[in-house]
Every structure is written in C-alpha cells, then in structure tokens.
Design a protein that fits this description.
single chain, about 270 residues, alpha/beta, Rossmann fold, eight-stranded mixed sheet, three-stranded antiparallel sheet, 6 helices, 13 strands, about 25% strand
Length: about 270
C-alpha cells in the first residue's frame, strides 16, 4: 500500500473511532444517496426507512469527521436528491461484476406525496449546521452530460449540491488556488461548477469526476495535509489527493472496492499543482 494512503475497511462509523483527534485537515466525500441503491450490505447508508433516519446516520459520521478534523479544517459534502416514487424497483449489475447492486426507488414517505421531490440535500445541510458545522456555501455541480432520464413531465436532473462546511468560524482556505478565468483575467471562483460526469471503467457507477475533489482539495489544504473520504468508493478522492501532494485517509465498506482503491492509489504519484 502507498505509505501516503491509509485504507480503513468497514463501516466508517466504527473505523473512524480509531483515528486520532484533530489529525485530518479536510474531508471531501459523497455518501450513498437516500433510497437509490442497495449495495447488499446491512451496514450501508441510504436504505433507511425514513429521511430522518438517513440524516441521523449521516450526523453520526459527521460527528466523527468533526472530531478527527483540525480546528481550521473544512468539510465538502456532495449530495443529490431523491424522488418519492413508490415501491417499484429495478436491477442493474455492478461493473465490478462481483455482486449485484439493486437500483431501488424510494418508498412513499409520511407527509410526502408520491412523485414529490424530497429535498434531502438541504435537510441534511440544515441538520449539519444545527449540529455545529458552519455552512459556508452551497456549490451547484452543473453536469453538462447528465444521466439520461425517460421522464416527460419534469426537466431532466442535471445538478447536485456540494455543501461547503467549516469546523470553526476561521479556517484554511486558498481562494487563489481555484480562481477562474474571466474577461478581465481571473476572478474569485463562482458557486456553480460545470464539470462533466467522468465514468471510471473499473468502478461502480457512482463515481466522482476527478476535477470535483481536485478543486475542493486545492481550496482547503496544503501540501502534506491529510484528506479524508469516509465513503471512498472507487478511491477518486484519494487518487487526486496523492496527485496533489497530500495524504489520504479512505474508509470503504465494500472489500472489493477496497481492492480497487489500493490499485488506484499504489499506482498514483505526485504531480505538479
């Protein structure tokens, strides 16, 4: 294993308990979304019976993130929404081809009509803010090439949220590292990021495009800082962190994805920023 990357296999709510206090500079992650996929593990997040239970699961993880984070650390959370669609379900195959992953439809929830957009991202964001995190920005990830949808009674979904939190009122942030081009030269980056979806052939379908964690990591960390992803998946955050001269701490429930993370991070070398 790359000595700059530590992989913790198992439920992050348990594995993070062994990580020392204030040892991580920042967290960049995308947890399983509510009611969308079944990865076949009883410890997975996302298939709770209510939105409140799902938020409770995320708050437990966020509490551990808060503990292990340095006082000037930041937390970047990518999360999408779900529709209340009834009990129908479909099945697709995981591209790792080691197990079947069910694509599920969320149940009808109390107080939410069938076909309603649930509003999960902002409910999560407000819960994290209420628990003590500073909610600094709602960044819109605009997808120029979104997944196609067959719906004809609403617009196709083509964005997700990246909520930017800080542990304290003052925190490490480098605006110049992610400044963007403008007609006058460069300007402070806006809060709509147009990033194309970037599939990774060996991974499951829910993967980060590399540019997304790259921007977050450049904005909130220095060379040598530890970057945490408690829902590592295919290991994109870790790969990018290593490329940028940072260290990576990655948690993953699925041991098959753990093998993929090891493969990606052991072949990654640092590159100029």
């Amino acid at each position: 294993m790359n000595e700059l990357c530590q992989i913790l296999l198992g439920d992050c709510r348990e594995t993070l308990k062994d990580v020392p206090d204030k040892s991580v500079q920042m967290c960049v992650t995308s947890p399983p979304y509510f009611g969308l996929r079944n990865y076949g593990d009883d410890a997975q997040l996302g298939l709770e019976s209510t939105v409140e239970a799902y938020i409770g699961s995320l708050l437990t993880v966020a509490s551990e993130i808060h503990r292990v984070m340095k006082d000037d650390g930041t937390f970047w959370l990518n999360i999408g929404d779900s529709m209340s669609s009834g009990q129908r379900r479909t099945t697709t195959n995981d591209s790792l081809r080691t197990q079947e992953v069910n694509t599920v439809r969320t149940p009808v929830l109390e107080g939410i009509k069938p076909k309603d957009l649930i509003g999960v991202p902002w409910r999560v964001a407000f819960a994290l803010r209420d628990s003590g995190w500073y909610l600094r920005s709602d960044i819109i990830w605009n997808k120029p090439n979104p997944m196609p949808e067959s719906v004809k009674d609403r617009p196709t979904q083509s964005h997700e949220h990246i909520f930017f939190f800080s542990k304290n009122e003052r925190y490490k942030y480098f605006a110049d590292n992610i400044a963007e081009a403008s007609v006058d030269g460069v300007r402070n980056r806006r809060d709509v990021w147009s990033i194309t979806v970037q599939p990774y052939s060996d991974a499951h379908f829910a993967t980060f495009p590399e540019k997304l964690p790259r921007l977050c990591i450049l904005a909130g960390s220095d060379l040598g800082d530890v970057i945490l992803d408690p829902f590592a998946g295919s290991g994109t955050t870790g790969k990018v962190a290593l490329e940028l001269g940072r260290k990576a701490l990655l948690c993953e429930l699925n041991p098959e994805y753990g093998k993929l993370i090891k493969k990606r991070t052991t072949t990654t070398v640092g590159m100029p920023i």
